[in-house]
Design goal:
By secondary structure, this protein is mainly alpha-helical. The chain contains five helices and no strands. Helix 1 runs antiparallel to helix 2. The mean pLDDT is 90.
Amino acid sequence: MEFEGATFLYTLATLMITFAGFSALLFVIRQAAGAKLSLLDRFIVRNIMTHVFVLTAAALLPVLLDSFYIPTWWVWQVSGLLFAIPMLSLQITYPLRRRRVVGSPPPFAIYAVFVVLGSAVTLAMVVCLLMDVRHGAAIYTTALTVDFFTVIFGFVNALDIIMQQPMDESK
């Protein structure tokens, strides 16, 4: 019998890795067109890759834990905690890390969606998993999906900002 939510998690992991490759490819194409990679470009690529790989690992973790035949409620609680710790760390520290590298804070929209909404969803997932394990699969996959879409939102907004930079900017 297949683990509850396994197909969705596999599909999500595939989409995440595809997105990571696509987002990196856009920066390579921009550089091939003659633009030098700025500090912001490098920061965004590194940040997107880090977030996506944490999300991908989180998508695969419940199925991995289930292969050890541990109770399902425990699979979701452990997966939630193991996902939330690095993800919350990345989400909460994003403005500080961006300011250190680029010298400016993120735009309000990125801060509101990528940092605040993403952190709130991740934290709510952990709280809900600790309180209601009957719906563990739904709680976990919903949080994972929303966090993935906050990364996409951040990327699209960052891409808009980067495309407005002069082609010869080498900051």
